[in-house]
From TrEMBL:
Signal peptide from the UniProt entry: none
GO biological process, one term: polysaccharide biosynthetic process
UniProt main location, coarse: membrane
Similarity remark: Belongs to the GtrA family.
Subcellular location as annotated: Membrane
Membrane topology, record value: Multi-pass membrane protein
The protein's name in its UniProt record: GtrA family protein
GO CC entries: plasma membrane
The organism's taxonomic lineage, starting at the top: Bacteria, Pseudomonadati, Pseudomonadota, Alphaproteobacteria, Rhodospirillales
Keywords, alphabetical: Membrane, Transmembrane, Transmembrane helix
Superkingdom classification of source: Bacteria
Pfam family, one: GtrA_DPMS_TM
């Protein structure tokens, strides 16, 4: 039996936070122990974090789905989350490009706080990527047969 969607989403988000720590730790390993450059190291850390989050979501978030075809499911998870990463980055760029116009237009944001706009973009991108990844994971990766 699967969990209700709000519980699944909370579990997915919590595992995503764990994945963030795995990502950072794997990047440090890649850079300092494996001698990879920042770009190759990022590919390595993404794969480690995505594998961690796939496994944890398979075990705890999307219970009740088939345990067969793990390699195919893992590949679908990587593909779905790569699409979510593009959404995340796109929203980040959108906030950076449109944010100053919105701020100037509504006049509610003090001019000195525009330096915080990139952080608002990261937050908005993370939230949009999270929602997108959850929906794709639920519908395409961890669906019932």
């Amino acid at each position: 039996m699967s969990k209700p969607v709000p519980r699944q989403f909370a579990s997915f988000a919590l595992i995503g936070v764990g994945g963030l720590f795995v990502d950072m730790a794997a990047l440090a390993v890649a850079l300092h122990l494996l001698g990879l450059d920042p770009y190759g190291g990022r590919v390595f850390s993404y794969l480690m974090a995505a594998t961690f989050t796939w496994y944890m979501n398979r075990q705890f978030t999307f219970t009740g789905v088939s345990r067969r075809g793990a390699i195919r499911q893992w590949a679908r998870f990587l593909a779905a989350n790569a699409v979510g990463a593009v959404v995340n980055y796109g929203v980040y760029v959108l906030v950076l490009k449109v944010g100053p116009w919105v701020i100037a237009g509504i006049g509610l944001w003090p001019e000195g706080l525009t330096a915080l706009l990139p952080y608002a973009g990261v937050a908005a991108g993370s939230v949009s990527g999270l929602v997108f990844n959850f929906v794709l994971s639920k519908k395409l990766v961890f669906r019932n047969a």
